[in-house]
Amino acid sequence: MLKSLEARVQDGKVEFLEPIPASLHGRVIVTFLEEQVPIDLAERGIDEQQAGDLRHRLQAFAPDWDRPEMDVYDEE
Question: 0.70 cut: is pTM over it?
Fold first, then answer.
């Protein structure tokens, strides 16, 4: 069974953001996620309403973009 818990690393220590169930024990794998930087909409020439409209229109493509094999396009 796999169980994911959200945590952050501070000064080399893992701090869980939720209680760890007592039933969990064993080995773990820690995966570091990229920090998400807020997007400056004005810098891109759009406002909140336009961004919301764009997000809504592109939502249909999300299942394809989120497929694991699409990660190859994220590499720089």
Answer: no
